């Protein structure tokens, strides 16, 4: 070897070593950069989301003394939280600048025509009502007006920006040199109005307005008469002062002498609530022709506690109660599932918030959202949000004998008033009060609902509506879409991979695999377009054939495979793999054709109305005697499940009464009438959509469709465990044609047994009152889960197929040869040898496909109605986390609540995929370790 050659090889070795080192550095750096990018995204999501769960902050404190505060009836603040006005029960208003405690004036609220006996203030003084001893009421409003003014040197306070100068019943704030803002307390009242019913003084009054501007006035007079008035303002066309007109409905309390301590009307004018300190609440509601009647008298307090404060939440539909033990509860009117009340409604508790402080002295609702300030006897104030039950801030005011509390209009301040006139004002930054862990991931009892629920509703109709941004419907929708898509994709992809890996020739495999992988290049938007414009309309038009086809097509392919075994072996050996594929396609086409014929026929026969449906629709029913009713049906609680159970017993519910069809035996006219009624509504034959919508029909046909695939799987597993070996030994002793006939007979018998088991299961489920329309089936929507599952399955199949096929190909050929040499068939070799060894790779393929389906956006956007529902109905829509982000993020204001919640959706999606991939990797390692010795 020459020295030159040695130097050349040494230089080449150094270059290769340098290149290897550089490549290793680039690969390592790239890996760290990818990891850093992923972690950076995660940390950024957490950074954006964390403020949602943080508490608020308390800022500067102002203290002072307000005269006559011991008789305070209401406290309100100006929009800039600089001034407060105390409205007293003696009809006086006292204003003070909260920063510094300088009084700015005192005046009468109204010009008294009689002695004030009752007052009502709502929405920071926007609606005010005063009742008098002579039976009159006076309506109006109080509040602050803001005007821009020019400042001279005398009022400019040396030009200092932000300086506050007290003014008559308000203040002047310097905005810039020579220019300021004057904020003044003003009042506006109409003339006194005489009430139309009752006698004596107005002893209680409540004045409310709903988000539409409708105003309701409820007044209780001394003789126990209650007047519920709809307030209308009439403005003359020719000009002049507007007049107030009252449309009155009156009634008398159940016990006129037992005067309630709190008296309130809901903002919709439908309910009047009379409340006593011992917790008793009488609810009067409009029933026939708008008349009010006592509907229920309930005890709202648990134990021996008493009510110490009461008020209505923003919107005027939720009653808030404070107790002597510091507990705050809220109640609203919701649907009564048991129908035990005349109006079908009942008072339900929506929230119960306990506190460590003493009794509740006052409750002040915000006019901005559903926050409330709770004043306790020990001088503490808690700011809470009623929907989320989140403690925003807790303030120690230091006031020994507090009597009143108020929240600034922008929720940026809280003022508490003491009996001696002292006050304590605190700047507040509430952050994101409406959100907590419970509000985002737990069941929340929203206003108007009978029970807590998961609800996502990003927009509301008015400022009084509750924000409903529970993420559970979105998480559920994501999992629902993924589960159904994987149920469709995994069997097709894995079985296709087994087929191309173990049974087809290399020539065919070289064509099939690239073709399937080419499917992965289809953009999601194209698949979504096909789903929305082609698949969804086809399914909606041919629903009968499509649903039945999901059962018929697999049976057709399996039947063709068994018939193929009857063909002599000599002829079968002449066919190639490509011919097999063509034959499978032909069998599938035959199944599709059979479905188009069988589907409508099955629906017409199975899902047609029976005699019971005809009698119920025609009204040919009679009441069921009490002695023939089931014991559980005697409580008049007829919900969906009890109605289903009665239906299985030949009974129905008609306007809350249990009925049964009239005996039509021998009555031809009745039968004709029932049939005519079915024809009139288009139900002379079965209609699958109307059956799915629950308009008619028994549950048995639906359960048969649900249980039949499950029964087939169960029967197949059972025969594999108990019968297959015996049948295999029997076939081994027979000639080829006889053995094939035995296998075909076994297939037919197993199908019959599966159908029998499905029928028995359907009868049992129906007798127990279960109905598939309450679970896997339900109301039909053209863009539904089934369509998404099919199209998303096609998007996932190429990924699962490719990785699974590679995993199967990686199994050593020696294992296959040994299995075949031991006498196993190619199918037995594939299922018992190759598949277990490649299980880790196939599992990884399924998990990668799962992650692909979880993050899918465009298909879900275009193929579903994006309705955040929580049910497993395959014919309904849903909304996923990814689709929700894509739809709503462009319209979400930066750093606002909605914006951060959408980032939380991204974080939840990130965590879901991380957990799923981590668990998949752990399982893959375990399976791979078990097969390491093979």
Chart the SSEs and their pairings:
Layout: H1 3-49, E1 57-65, E2 72-77, E3 83-88, E4 92-97, E5 102-108, E6 116-122, E7 127-132, E8 136-150, E9 164-167, E10 170-176, E11 179-189, E12 193-194, E13 202-209, E14 215-221, E15 225-234, E16 243-252, E17 262-265, E18 271-275, E19 280-286, E20 292-299, E21 307-312, E22 318-323, E23 328-335, E24 345-353, E25 360-365, E26 371-376, E27 380-385, E28 390-396, E29 402-407, E30 413-418, E31 422-429, H2 437-441, E32 456-457, E33 468-469, H3 472-502, H4 506-518, H5 524-541, H6 543-564, H7 569-573, H8 577-606, H9 611-618, E34 621-623, H10 640-648, E35 652-654, E36 657-661, H11 668-680, H12 688-692, H13 700-722, H14 724-732, H15 736-767, H16 785-809, H17 813-821, H18 826-837, H19 839-854, H20 858-863, H21 881-888, H22 897-930
Antiparallel strand pairs: 1-31, 2-3, 3-4, 4-5, 6-7, 7-8, 8-11, 8-12, 9-10, 10-11, 13-14, 14-15, 15-16, 17-18, 18-19, 19-20, 21-22, 22-23, 23-24, 25-26, 26-27, 27-28, 29-30, 30-31, 32-33, 34-36, 35-36
Helix pairs in contact: 1-22, 3-16, 3-19, 4-16, 5-16, 6-8, 9-11, 13-15, 14-15, 16-19, 17-18, 19-22, 21-22
Compact overview of the structure:
With 934 residues, this protein is of the alpha+beta class. Helices cover 41% and strands 25% of the residues. A hairpin with a 5-residue loop joins strand 19 (280-286) and strand 20.
């Amino acid at each position: 070897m020459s020295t030159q050659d040695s130097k050349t090889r040494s230089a080449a070795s150094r270059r290769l070593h340098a290149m290897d080192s550089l490549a290793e550095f680039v690969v390592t750096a790239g890996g760290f950069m990818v990891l850093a990018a992923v972690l950076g995204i995660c940390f950024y999501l957490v950074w954006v989301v964390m403020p949602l769960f943080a508490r608020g902050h308390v800022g500067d404190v102002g203290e002072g003394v307000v005269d006559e505060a011991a008789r305070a009836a209401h406290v309100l603040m100006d929009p800039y939280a600089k001034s407060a006005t105390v409205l007293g029960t003696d009809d006086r208003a006292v204003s003070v600048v909260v920063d510094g405690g300088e009084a700015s004036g005192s005046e009468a609220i109204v010009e008294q025509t009689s002695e004030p006996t009752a007052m009502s203030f709502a929405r920071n003084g926007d609606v005010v009502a005063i009742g008098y001893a002579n039976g009159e009421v006076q309506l109006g409003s109080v509040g602050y007006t803001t005007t821009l003014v020019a400042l001279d040197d005398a009022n400019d306070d040396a030009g200092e920006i932000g300086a506050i100068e007290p003014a008559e019943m308000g203040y002047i704030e310097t905005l810039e040199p020579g220019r300021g803002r004057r904020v003044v307390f003003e009042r506006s009242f109409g003339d006194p109005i005489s009430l139309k019913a009752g006698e004596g003084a107005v002893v209680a009054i409540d004045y409310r307005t709903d988000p539409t501007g409708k105003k309701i006035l409820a007044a209780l007079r001394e003789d126990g008469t209650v007047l519920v008035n709809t307030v209308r303002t009439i403005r003359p066309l020719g000009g002049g002062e507007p007049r107030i007109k009252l449309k009155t409905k009156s009634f008398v309390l159940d016990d006129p002498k037992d005067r309630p301590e709190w008296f309130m009307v809901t903002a919709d004018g439908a309910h009047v609530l009379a409340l006593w300190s011992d917790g008793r609440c009488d609810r009067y509601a409009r029933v026939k022709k708008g008349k009010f009647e006592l509907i229920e008298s309930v005890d709202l307090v648990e134990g021996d506690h008493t009510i110490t404060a009461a008020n209505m939440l923003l919107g005027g539909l939720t009653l808030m109660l404070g107790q002597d033990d510091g507990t705050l509860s809220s109640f609203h009117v919701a649907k009564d599932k048991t129908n035990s009340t005349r109006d079908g409604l009942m008072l339900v508790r929506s929230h119960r918030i306990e506190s460590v402080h003493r009794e509740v002295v006052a409750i002040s609702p915000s006019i901005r959202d559903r926050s409330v300030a709770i004043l306790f006897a020990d001088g503490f104030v808690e700011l809470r949000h009623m929907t989320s039950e989140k403690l925003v801030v807790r303030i120690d005011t230091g006031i020994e004998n507090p009597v009143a509390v108020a929240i600034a209009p922008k929720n940026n301040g809280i003022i508490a008033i003491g009996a001696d006139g002292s006050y304590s004002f605190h700047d507040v930054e509430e952050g994101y009060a409406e959100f907590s862990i419970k509000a985002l991931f737990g069941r929340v009892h929203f206003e108007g609902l009978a029970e807590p629920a998961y609800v996502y509703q990003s927009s509301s109709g008015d400022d009084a509506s509750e924000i409903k941004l529970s993420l559970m419907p979105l998480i559920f929708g994501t999992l629902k879409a993924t589960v159904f898509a994987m149920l469709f994709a995994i069997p097709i992809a894995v079985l296709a991979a087994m087929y191309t890996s173990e049974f087809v020739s290399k020539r065919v495999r070289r064509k099939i695999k690239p073709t399937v992988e080419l499917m992965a290049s289809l953009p999601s938007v194209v698949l979504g377009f096909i789903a929305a414009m082609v698949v969804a309309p086809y399914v909606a038009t041919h629903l009968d054939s499509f649903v039945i086809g999901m059962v018929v097509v697999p049976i057709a392919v399996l039947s063709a495979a068994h018939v193929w075994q009857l063909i002599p072996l000599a002829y079968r050996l002449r066919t190639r793999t490509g011919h097999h594929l063509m034959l499978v396609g032909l069998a599938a086409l035959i199944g599709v054709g059979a479905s188009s014929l069988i589907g409508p026929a099955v629906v017409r026969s199975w899902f047609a109305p029976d005699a019971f449906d005809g009698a119920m629709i025609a009204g040919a029913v009679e009441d069921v005697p009490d002695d023939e009713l089931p014991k559980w049906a005697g409580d008049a609680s007829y919900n969906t499940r009890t109605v289903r159970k009665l239906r299985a017993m030949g009974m129905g519910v008609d306007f809350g009464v249990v009925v049964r069809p009239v005996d039509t035996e021998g009555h031809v006219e009745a039968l004709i009438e029932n049939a005519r009624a079915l024809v009139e509504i288009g139900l002379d034959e079965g209609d699958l959509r109307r059956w799915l919508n629950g308009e008619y029909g028994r549950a048995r046909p639906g359960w048969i469709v649900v249980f039949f695939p499950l029964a087939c799987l169960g029967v197949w597993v059972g025969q594999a465990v108990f019968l297959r070996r015996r049948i295999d030994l029997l076939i081994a002793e027979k000639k080829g044609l006889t053995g094939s006939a035995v296998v075909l007979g076994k297939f037919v018998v197993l199908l019959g047994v599966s159908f029998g088991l499905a029928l028995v299961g359907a009868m049992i489920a129906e007798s127990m009152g279960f109905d598939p329309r309450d679970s896997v089936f339900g109301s039909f929507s053209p863009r539904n889960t089934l369509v998404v599952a099919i199209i998303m399955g096609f998007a996932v199949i190429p990924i699962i197929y490719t990785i699974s096929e590679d995993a199967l190909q990686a199994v050593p050929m020696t294992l296959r040869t040994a299995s075949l040499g031991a006498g196993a068939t190619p199918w037995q070799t594939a299922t018992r040898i190759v598949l277990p060894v490649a299980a880790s790779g196939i599992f990884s393929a399924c998990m990668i496909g799962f992650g692909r389906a979880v993050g899918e956006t465009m298909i879900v956007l275009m193929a579903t109605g994006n309705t955040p529902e929580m049910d497993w109905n395959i014919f309904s829509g849903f909304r996923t986390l990814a689709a929700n982000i894509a739809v709503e993020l462009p319209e979400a204001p930066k750093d606002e609540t909605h914006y951060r919640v959408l980032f939380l959706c991204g974080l939840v999606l990130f965590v879901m995929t991380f957990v799923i991939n981590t668990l998949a990797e752990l399982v893959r390692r375990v399976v791979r370790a078990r097969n390491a010795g093979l």
